[in-house]
Amino acid sequence: MTLILSLSRSNPMTDSRDVPTLGKVAQVATFDGLAAAEAWRRSAAVRAAYMATATEMLLDMARVGLGARVLAVGSGAGGEALDAAIRVGPKGHVEAADLSAAMIHAAKEAAVEAGVKNIDFSVMDAQRLEFPDATFDAVISRNVLMFIPDLTLGLAEMKRVLKPSGRVGATVWSNGARNPRISGPLAAARALGGRPPDSATYRIALRLGTSAALGRAFRSAGFRKLAVRRVTLTADYVDLDYAVSQAMEQPGTRELVAILGYKPQGRMQRSLRRRWARYADPRGTHLPGEQLVASAAP
Questions:
Q1: What is the Cα gyration radius of the chain?
Q2: Is 84 helix (H, G, I), strand (E, B) or coil?
Q3: Terminal-to-terminal C-alpha distance of the chain
Q4: Which fold has domain 24-297?
Q5: Contacts (Cβ under 8 Å, ≥6 apart) of 294
Q6: Backbone angles phi, psi at 295, to 5 degrees
């Protein structure tokens, strides 16, 4: 039986243009390369703060505990993989896999800086996990499922490497209306005459933001006992200028800037400032967000 928890209907304010269909999508390349990894590293502190509650819930729902063997799929620059390694303790172990060699390099450096030793890193495609069947007690994936080109294949691989008693856990963004950090740059680009294609990173990022989409994805790979919880979050910045500058560094925003015309950098910055001004006050800028945190059994 599939159980969906804490889910409501999609927000009618969501722009349907921002959500590609659930079928196969293009491989996103915006997170690859040294520049993307460096931008991700610079924003790590803000990201860790606003993702803290969702990450803790992710680990709880995947039943990551002392002594567990865990696989983090799409681990990026470390993040949740390091959190999992700390949680499982010295008798546990984490394998962190990501398609980007630059991100894996950054994650290794983060592990060294944090003094975390019970973790290994591999450059690996989520659609072809290079581990034997029934290897892990838990498989976790934070904000990655939507970027897997063949999601059914990727989830089937996660199911394959899970032990029969294991759990998979994942987070995804909900709809664009509740996540202006993602929908804002898309709207800003459109207001400036840009036409973000279906393959745009931020459009793909929103494709699993409903209970129906998540249910179809997990059921297609044979998972059962699906549970989903909704988590609100806030990304706090010292001021509006810093929020905009952080956004402009992100690979998804740079991708949108590239499709604009004359002097796109300054135009995008001004457009974002106008859209996010409502979230600013004398104490800083506070961009709201919402995650869906899911877990399921093989």
A1: 18
A2: helix
A3: 12
A4: Rossmann fold (3.40.50)
A5: 61, 169, 170, 171, 172, 214, 218, 226, 227, 228, 229
A6: -145, 155
**Tokens representing 169?**
């856990």
Instruction: Work out whether the CA dihedral 209, 56, 185, 105 comes out positive or negative.
Output: negative
Confirm if 68 and 137 have CB atoms less than 8 A apart: yes
DSSP helix/strand/coil, 97: strand
Contact (Cβ atoms closer than 8 angstroms) between residue 145 and residue 261: no
Residue 246, both tokens: 């952080």
Contact predicate 74/83, CB 8 Å: no
In this model, does residue 19 exceed pLDDT 70? no
Structure tokens belonging to residue 158: 């996660």
The residue ranges of every structural domain in the chain are 24-297
* Other Cβ atoms within 10 Å of 132 Cβ, number: 9
Picking from 102, 104, 63, the residue whose alpha carbon sits closest to that of residue 84 is 63
pLDDT number for residue 22: 56
**Per the structure block, which two tokens stand in for 90?**
């010295």
> What pLDDT, in 10s, does the model give residues 190-233?
999 999 998 999 999 999 998 889 989 999 999 999 999 999 99
